[in-house]
Amino acid sequence: MVFIEFEAKDTVIHRLNPVAKLVWFGSIVVLLTLYLEPQPLLIVFLLEVLVGTLAKVPWRKLLARAWWAFLLSIFGGYTYSIWINKPSQFWRIPPELGCKTILVITPEGTPLMGYTAITVGGLLWGTAMTLRVFIGVIAASILTFITPVSDLAMIWAKFLPYKLSFICTTGVRFYPVMIEKIQEIMTAAKSRGWDMSSKNPVKRIRAVFPIVIPASREAMLLADKMALAMEAKAFGVRKPTVLKTIEFTPSDILFIVFSISFTIMMFLMWWFYGFGML
Questions:
Q1: C-alpha angle 35/39/42, rounded to 5°?
Q2: Which of these ranges, 52-56, 72-76, 126-130, 131-135, has the smallest mean pLDDT?
C-alpha cells in the first residue's frame, strides 16, 4: 500500500540503490512479524523515523492520507485484545500480570463472545498490533517516496513475469493518483453542501453515492488511458528490455549490512531472551 508517491530529492536515502532500499523494507517487515509487545516495536519505529527524516519525508502529507488506516488499526487491535485474557496466551510476562483484569466486558459463559475483559496483557497486545500496522504503513510509504516506480519495476521484473510486474507497478503508481482524485471529488462535493455527519446509517450509505459514482468514472477513464498507452507502445508483443543496471556503492553496501545486522541482532534477542514475546 502506498500513500505518498515518489519525489526526486537529493538526500542520502534517495541516492541509495533500490536493492538496498528493499532490503531495509524487508528488514522492517521481518521484525514486524516477530513482536507482540510494544517495546521492541518502538525501537523499530525510531529507526524508521530516522530513515524518513534523512529522506525528508513530508510527514503531514503522509498523515493526512493515512489517518484512516491508523484509526482502523487502533479499532481492530484493541477490539481483538479483549480476548487476550488467558494464561496460555502469555510466554514472557507472568500470567498473573497478563491476566490482571482492569474491566470485565462479558462474563464467563456469554454466548458467542465468551469471556472478554480489558487486561494488562490485552492492552500490551493491542498496542503492539496498532504499532505494527502504523509502522508497516509508514515503511511502505517511505519506500515509495524514496524509490522511483521504474526502479521497483526493474527489481520485480527479475523475480516475477513481466506482465505481473507491470500490474504491481501500475497499482503502486496510480493508487496515490486515485486518492488525490477522490479528495478533489470530496472537496467539490462539500462545496455543494455534501455532508456525511449524519448518525443514521442509511443516510450515511446514501451520502456515499455522490462520491463513489464520480470516483468510479475517474478510475475507468484512467484505465482507458492506460490501455490506449499500452496499445500504442505494443505492450505484450515481447518482453521489454531492461534499460538500467544495478550498481552498488559503498553507501549501498553499508546500508544493507546495517539493515541485516540490525535485524539479526533483534531476532537473536527475541529468540534467546524472549524480547518482544508477550
A1: 95
A2: 72-76
**Residue 104, pLDDT above cutoff 80:** yes
CB 21 within 8 A of CB 146: yes
State the residue for C-alpha cell 543496471: 245
d(CA 255, CA 236): 36
Q: Say if residue 53 is in the same domain as residue 139.
A: yes
1 and 117 in a common domain: yes
Q: Which domain covers residue 13, as residue numbers?
A: 1-147+247-278
Cell of 249: 556503492
pLDDT, tens only, 204-249: 677 777 788 888 888 888 778 877 877 777 776 676 666 667 788 8
**Measured between alpha carbons, how far is residue 191 from residues 154, 180, 182, 195, 229 in Å?**
43, 17, 14, 10, 34
Model confidence, pTM = 0.74
Number of domains in the chain: 2
Q: Which residues contact 95 (CB under 8 A, 6 or more apart)?
A: 87
129 backbone dihedrals φ, ψ, rounded to 5°: -65, -40
